[in-house]
Write a structure and sequence with these properties.
- By secondary structure, this protein is of the alpha/beta class.
- The protein folds into two domains: 196 residues, 3-Layer(aba) Sandwich (Alkaline Phosphatase, subunit A); 172 residues, no CATH class.
- The chain contains 16 helices and 16 strands.
- The strands form five sheets. It has a six-stranded mixed β-sheet with strand order 2-16-7-1-6-5, sandwiched between helices.
- Helix 9 links the parallel strand 5 and strand 6.
- Helix 9 runs parallel beside helix 11.
- Bound molecules: zinc ion (ZN).
- Zinc ion binds next to helix 10.
Length: 397
C-alpha cells in the first residue's frame, strides 16, 4: 500500500454533485469521483457526522435547536422575553447577531452559536446542540471526533479553524504542509454562503468561486511538488443546494389552532422541516389536521425513513413527528429566518440537488457512499499512518 507524505481531506461546504458535473470541476486532477448521499439534516448535522462517522441518532445533532424545556440553558432569557419590546427591534438581523455573540460568551459556548430568528419567548424551552467546538479535543463528548482520533493515534494532524475564512484556511494548510504535517483536514464554507444567495449553478459568482478553489488546490499540488512530497488529496462535501420554488407559512397554520406552545406542544420550525413534540395527546390530531393542507408540499417522515436517514431515536429528542418539505419549498417565516433564502439544503437526501461529492487523486474505496462514510475513510488512512510510525520509530520523533 502506497504511503503518501501528505494526506489532505478538503471539505467544501455545499459543493454538490450537480455543480461538479455541470462545471466539470477538476476532472483531470481529481479523476476519481463519486456522487455521495447527503446526511439528512443541515450542515450542523453533517459536520458532526463527518467528524465522527456517527449518525444524528448517535451524536444528537439534528437542527441547531430542539424543544427541551428541562435541559434548556436559556431559561433565564426566556423569562426576560416579555421585557424585550418592541419585538421588531430584537428581531433585527444585526441585533440578533450581536446578541448571539454576547450570549455565546456569557454561556461559555465554544461552538457555533446563532439565535437566528428563534423567538425569545420560546428560547427558554429550547436546547442548543452545538454548545461545544466540534472540531476541538473532546468537542463531541463521549463520541470520538477527528481530533481525538489523531491524538489517540499520535498522528500529527492539522485541522482548519472554522472561525476564519477560506483564504486564511488554505494559507494555514500550506504552512502546515511546509512544517511537515502529514494529515490535513481543511474546512471551507464560503461556497455554501454564496450558493444560498445565488443558487444558480452557472452564475458568474459561483463559477468564480469554484475557479478560486481550483487555484487553491493547484497551489497545494505545487507546494508539495516543490517540497518533493507525495500527496493524496480528497475533496469531500456535505450536500448541494436547491433553488427556492415557493414558501409555505406552516407556522401560522399551527399557531392558529389555539394550542399553547409549551403546554400543549413544542416545536422547531427549521427552514425545510417542522419538528413537533406533542405534550397533550389531543394536540397530535389537531396539529396533524392543521398541517394537512401542506401535504401537497411535504410529508410526515415514516419510522423507516427516519431509520434509513440515521435520525430515529425511540426517546424522540428531535420531536415526536417530523414534517419534511418537498425539494425547493421552504417554511417561511421559520425559526431560522423571517424570509426564505434563494437556495436551501436540508431536503430529502435522494433529491438530485441534495447530492454531495467525493473527488480524489486516488481510488475511493467502494464502501464510501454516504456522508457518514467519510470518517471511516479518514480513520483508515490515519491508522495506516500510525502503523507506519510504529514500525519506523525514528519517524515518530
Ligand atoms: Zn448552508
Amino acid at each position: 500500500m502506497k504511503q503518501y507524505d501528505v494526506e489532505i481531506f478538503l471539505f467544501i461546504d455545499a459543493l454538490g454533485w450537480e455543480l461538479v458535473s455541470r462545471t466539470g470541476f477538476m476532472e483531470k486532477e481529481l479523476p476519481f469521483r463519486r456522487r455521495i448521499e447527503m446526511q439528512f439534516g443541515y450542515s450542523s448535522t453533517a459536520i458532526p457526522t463527518i467528524l465522527s462517522g456517527r449518525t444524528p441518532a448517535e451524536h444528537g445533532h439534528l437542527g441547531l435547536f430542539r424543544f427541551a424545556p428541562e435541559s434548556s440553558p436559556f431559561r433565564l432569557l426566556g423569562k426576560l422575553a416579555p421585557l424585550m419590546k418592541p419585538e421588531s427591534f430584537w428581531n433585527r438581523g444585526r441585533v440578533r447577531h450581536l446578541l448571539s455573540r454576547l450570549i455565546g460568551k456569557l454561556y461559555g459556548f465554544t461552538g457555533y452559536f446563532q439565535l437566528y430568528q428563534m423567538p425569545f419567548r420560546k428560547l427558554g424551552m429550547m436546547d442548543y446542540c452545538e454548545k461545544r467546538d466540534l472540531f476541538a479535543k473532546g468537542g463531541m463528548g463521549q463520541v470520538e471526533n477527528l481530533r481525538d482520533l489523531l491524538d489517540r493515534l499520535k498522528v500529527k494532524g492539522h485541522i482548519s479553524d472554522w472561525h476564519i475564512g477560506d483564504r486564511r484556511n488554505f494559507e494555514a494548510a500550506r504552512q502546515a504542509i511546509s512544517a511537515g504535517t502529514p494529515f490535513l483536514f481543511i474546512y471551507t464554507a464560503e461556497l455554501d454562503a454564496l450558493l444560498h444567495q445565488y443558487p444558480v449553478l452557472l452564475h458568474d459568482r459561483i463559477r468564480e468561486k469554484v475557479e478560486w478553489y481550483r487555484t487553491q488546490i493547484l497551489s497545494l499540488f505545487q507546494l508539495c511538488r516543490e517540497q518533493k512530497k507525495s500527496l493524496r488529496l480528497t475533496v469531500i462535501s456535505d450536500h448541494g443546494m436547491t433553488p427556492l420554488t415557493r414558501t409555505v407559512d406552516l407556522r401560522s397554520a399551527v399557531e392558529k389552532t389555539g394550542l399553547k406552545f409549551g403546554r400543549d406542544y413544542g416545536a422547531c420550525y427549521d427552514s425545510t422541516m417542522f419538528r413537533v413534540t406533542f405534550l397533550k395527546p389531543e394536540a397530535e390530531q389537531i396539529i396533524r389536521s392543521a398541517v394537512r393542507p401542506f401535504e401537497d408540499s411535504g410529508h410526515w417522515l415514516t419510522e423507516n425513513e427516519e431509520k434509513y436517514y440515521g435520525i430515529y431515536r425511540p426517546d424522540r429528542p428531535f420531536g415526536d413527528a417530523l414534517f419534511l418539505m418537498d425539494p425547493g419549498i421552504q417554511i417561511a417565516p421559520s425559526d431560522m429566518g423571517a424570509r426564505a433564502l434563494n437556495g436551501m439544503h436540508g431536503f430529502a437526501p435522494e433529491d438530485k440537488d441534495s447530492q454531495a461529492v467525493i473527488l480524489s487523486t486516488d481510488e475511493i474505496p467502494d464502501t464510501v457512499r454516504r456522508v457518514s462514510d467519510y470518517f471511516q475513510l479518514m480513520k483508515q488512512r490515519i491508522e495506516e499512518r500510525a502503523d507506519t510510525l510504529k514500525t519506523e520509530p525514528d519517524a515518530a520523533s
